[in-house]
Amino acid sequence: MIVIIGASGTIGRALLKRLVNFGVPVRALSRDPEKVFMQIGDLDPSLIEIVSADATDPESLRRAFTGASQLFLAMSNSPRQIELETSIIHIATEVGIEHIVKISSPVFDRNAPVAVAGWHHEIERILFESGIKHTVLRPYAFMQNLLRFAPTIIAQDVFYGSMDDIACNFIDCRDIADVAAETLTNSRVTGKVYTLTGSEVFSYPQIASKLSVLLGRSIRYVNMDSQVLRRNLIEHEHMPPWLVNHIVEIQAMSVALPEKPMDTVKHLLGREPRTLDDFLCEYVDNFR
């Protein structure tokens, strides 16, 4: 039995589908089981056990982990990341989970500090010291996060950032899920750290050009000073300060540390990762 923490998240949903299509029994954990139930569609219900559990409730986790052999750990980033994931790791170890696959951060660099990357770096250390077998996946920017720009693209034909014309890595969350499924079902590739990217790097101006062609109208990328972007995210998108800091920090990191694609996805899955062009074509209606 494989337990999925984050079953209603973007990666968790795709992983759930992938494992069930492999015929693998899955226990999907959520604070809102109904939400998971609504998303399983025509998947074989005999292979899916939906369980109510909360990362802040250790007893609910102990019940949910009992009888399982593997755990997929993908939590939404939050200021309580270290506390909650550390608790999960300790409980998993106590109840006999044999292998944890964790979604982490792609890079931790003291010269370009990103607080969330530091949180994941610390959790990785705790995971290593726990002695439990583990596989760490370090994906770069999710293509799905580009959907965050949809409101201003729809209303103003523009989106904002602070990365100039720096090209950076993107990866489709479904490829992350496919890699996770491979590490959960193929013992030959477990126990390692994998950095995950797509096959190409792109800048925001290039993405604006691609959207312009797809939408048949001019889409612009407007570069902002990082402090102006910070105020914009707080005042207009009403983001919590920690998340604003994260967005500004990762964009600064992308500028400071040039990114390049890696072939990890192709090596593990035997195919090329999904392309940004295919992703934008698939989701173009979200930007209309």
Automatic annotation (TrEMBL):
Secretion signal span: none
Domain NmrA-like: 2-252
Keywords, in A-Z order: Oxidoreductase
Enzyme Commission no: 1.6.5.2
Enzyme class: oxidoreductase
Keyword Cell membrane: no
Molecular-function GO terms, alphabetical: NAD(P)H dehydrogenase (quinone) activity
Entries under SUPFAM superfamilies matching the protein: NAD(P)-binding Rossmann-fold domains
Any Pfam family matching the protein: NmrA
Protein's recorded name: SDR family oxidoreductase
